[in-house]
Structure formats: structure tokens, C-alpha cells
Amino acid sequence: MGKKLCVIGASGKLGRHLVRHALDRGYEVVGVCREKSVPKLAEFEGRITVIPGPTDDRAVIAKAVNGCDAVLTVLVPWGRSHLATGTAQAVLDHARPGARLIFSCGWHITRDGKDVYPWTFKAYAAVFGRLAKLIRLVDVDDQVEACRRVFASDTRWTVVRGSDLEDGESQGLPVWRGHVGDPALASNRTRRVDYALFMVEAVEDDTLVHEAPAIVGRLTPSALAHAGRQA
Ligand SMILES: NC(=O)c1ccc[n+]([C@@H]2O[C@H](COP(=O)([O-])OP(=O)(O)OC[C@H]3O[C@@H](n4cnc5c(N)ncnc54)[C@H](OP(=O)(O)O)[C@@H]3O)[C@@H](O)[C@H]2O)c1
Q1: SS3 sequence of the chain
Q2: Domains by residue range for the chain, with CATH
Q3: Protein residue with its CA nearest to atom 46 in ligand 1
Q4: A single Pfam family, by name (predicted)?
Q5: Residues 148-170 pLDDT 10s
Q6: Pocket test for ligand 1, best of 7, 11, 14, 164 (most atoms within 8 A of CB)
Q7: What are the tens digits of pLDDT across the range 57-86?
Q8: Which atom of ligand 1 is nearest to the CA of 83?
Q9: Which atom of ligand 1 is nearest to the CA of 161?
Q10: Is the whole model's pTM more than 0.70, yes or no?
């Protein structure tokens, strides 16, 4: 029997790429998204099972991840209701023991405090983070807490830390490093389609279990200049 995979946040840009890659690889796919976003999954009609509902609704997640070998979660810190933390916790609690759990987030998440951020990144994150919190749009701390719980869990997790994203044709599997600050990552740019590719490939890559890879597009200048030297 084929493997079953769940995409939490399937209707977003990253989520739809995840669904496409998963279908291409022959997985049976279950997708979770907000009720109002179900039409965004129309291109997959008849090929995936859609469970509509808030991604931090524990009953919705329990139903969606039931029997899944892998769960890919798009962690987003929208609003002020701890959406990312609630989503991550529901996945951690309800995925079957031993399932591969892959989460998305940004470079700003650090697992061990050894990431070295360019001043431009820190300045942008500080200004954007405060402003977004002020207008109650996004709560970056929520994604930090969500990832803290993932790192502390005894599940088979991988947290894929995305650089700045752009749309466009695939350039292939991104290059990754263990810490931001590695010169290979300096270009800070990845295609969304390839971010999704990395997450789906991670399902079968046990070397990424308990890793928090920071990724960059494989054709970016920094990746090309430092190709082959894994940190
Ligand atoms: N954007 C970047 O440059 C960037 C950089 C680094 C890392 N990342 C990471 O990449 C992942 C995808 O980010 P993305 O920016 O590319 O977005 P995206 O793929 O378009 O996904 C956005 C997600 O947020 C949901 N969403 C939007 N507004 C919401 C609301 N008010 N309440 C609840 N859910 C809401 C969307 O659901 P609906 O379809 O229902 O609207 C969708 O699932 C995230 O984990 C992010 O941290 C992004």
C-alpha cells in the first residue's frame, strides 16, 4: 500500500507546491485548510482528500493526520491567537508515533543560538516584528514558541528554515546549512517550489531527522560559490 501524507496549510502558495510534489511522488494526500480557502485546492479535486477547518483545531488535525506516515506543516504566525503554536502542538500530539514531521518557518528561528544573522536581517526582523505585533497582524514569537515545542518533542521532526522566498520555475533541490551565517546562504533567496521540494524530499531523508536546515536556492550566487562544502 502507498504512503499517506498530510499537508497542513495546503491552500497557501507553499502548501499547494507541497501537494503537487507529494502527488508527483505517488503519495496519497490529505490536505487541511480554512473552510473559505477550499476553492484554492480546486486543481486537485478528486486526487486529494480535503479536511476543511482551522489548522489549530485539534479535532480537525486528529482526523487529518490519522494513518499518515508523514505530516508537512506550513507554520504561520498569523493573528494573535497563537495559531502556529496551536497547530504545531496538535500535530505533535496527534500524528502517529514514528511519523515523519516536517515544519516550515523562517531563518529567524534558531535551534541552538549559533546562527549569525546579517545586520540587515536583524534590523528588518526587529522593525517588521514589532510593527506586525502592534497592528495584531502577525506574532513572530508564536512561530518561535511553536518551533521550541517541536525541538523539545520526541517525534521524528525536521524544521526547514526558509530564506526570503520568490516564485518561479524550479532550480532543483536547495542547498542547506546547519546555521545561518554560513557563506553559502548569503544570497538569502529560494524559490517556493524548491522550498516545497526540500520539505517533501525530507520525508524520506533520515539524515534530516532532528535537523533544522536553513536553505537557499541552489543556483543563487552564494550557493554556487560554496557548493559542496556542507557546514
Ligand atoms: N514569505 C517569505 O518570504 C518567507 C520567508 C521565509 C520563510 N517563510 C515560511 O514559508 C512558509 C510559507 O509562507 P508564505 O509567506 O510563502 O505563505 P503561503 O505559502 O502563501 O502560506 C500562507 C498560509 O497562511 C494562511 N493564512 C493566511 N492568512 C491567514 C489568517 N489570517 N489566518 C489563518 N491562516 C492564514 C494561508 O491559508 P489560506 O490559504 O487559508 O489563506 C496559508 O496556509 C511559512 O512557514 C513562512 O514562515 C516565508
Answers
A1: CCCEEEEECCCCHHHHHHHHHHHHCCCEEEEEECHHHHHHHHHHCCCEEEEECCCCCHHHHHHHHCCCCEEEEECCCECCCCHHHHHHHHHHHHCCCCCEEEEEEECCCCCCCCCCCCHHHHHHHHHHHHHHHHCCCECHHHHHHHHHHHHHCCCEEEEEEECCEECCCCCCCCEEECCECEHHHCCCCEEHHHHHHHHHHHCCCHHHCCECCEEECCCCHHHHHCCCCCC
A2: 4-225 (3.40.50.720)
A3: 105
A4: NAD_binding_10
A5: 999 999 999 999 999 999 999 99
A6: 14
A7: 999 999 999 999 999 999 999 988 999 999
A8: 33
A9: 7
A10: yes
